[in-house]
Amino acid sequence: MTQKVLLLTFHLIGVGTLVGVVFASVYYVLKLKTVEQLKDFITLRRIGAAGATLAILSGLVMSYRWLGNLIYEVAFMSKMGLILLDGIIAEFVFVKVLKKARAENSTESIKNKLLPWAIVSVLIVVAIITISAYRDKLH
Ligand code: HEM
């Protein structure tokens, strides 16, 4: 197996984990009934963050070693921008709301605050995958 195939495999394992968690988060928010369930939700989000880290590290190595002038590619830079945006939503919006929510004790207000962001995150991830898959044709 070549190094690139191995890295791409790691990349897609990370991507798969991240995408699974992003979709599962919408379901989780919709099904949220008690504040205690937030503990499992936080664990789920940590798994997503681990997947994102694996995708980002393997992606950066692949870009650095094999793809040269990606920085001039609109598709690649859009992908990077969307990843940054999703990271900001995950780390700043989600984590902030979750921390506050545990003190608040009201699942309804948690749901209302998290659901729009969970949906935005799904849309961003779908856009990232579309750009990645069609990169060759987009630049
Ligand atoms: C800093 C972060 C990332 C970098 C630098 C990066 C870079 C790369 C590179 C270099 C490839 C191989 C492209 C090729 O050989 O043509 C790739 C493939 C891919 N990436 Fe990323 N990536 C990153 C994060 C992500 C994330 C977060 C996702 C999804 C949510 C993602 C989805 C994909 C997919 C689906 C492919 C496979 C495309 C294909 O083989 O058709 N990547 N990425």
Radius of gyration: 17 Å
The name of the CATH topology is Four Helix Bundle (Hemerythrin (Met), subunit A)
What's the level 1 CATH class? Mainly Alpha
Largest sheet: none
* Number of self-contained structural domains: 1
CATH architectural designation? Up-down Bundle
- Ions, cofactors, ligands: which are bound? protoporphyrin IX containing FE
Strand fraction equals under 5%
Q: Mean pLDDT score, rounded?
A: 90
Q: N-to-C SSE series?
A: HHHHH
**Overall helicity:** over 70%
Shape: elongated
**Low-confidence residue ranges:** none
Count of distinct strands: 0
Report a brief summary of the structure.
With 139 residues, the protein is an all-alpha fold. The protein has a single domain, classed as Up-down Bundle (Four Helix Bundle (Hemerythrin (Met), subunit A)), CATH 1.20.120.
Can you give a write-up of this model?
The chain is an all-alpha fold and 139 residues long. It has a single domain, classed as Four Helix Bundle (Hemerythrin (Met), subunit A), CATH 1.20.120. The protein is 86% helix and 0% strand. The protein has five helices and no strands. It has helices at residues 3-31, 38-66, 74-104, 107-133, 135-138. It is elongated, with a radius of gyration of 17 Å. Residues 11, 15, 18-19, 52, 55-56, 59-60, 62-63, 67, 83, 125, 128-129, 132-133, 135 line the site of protoporphyrin IX containing FE (HEM).
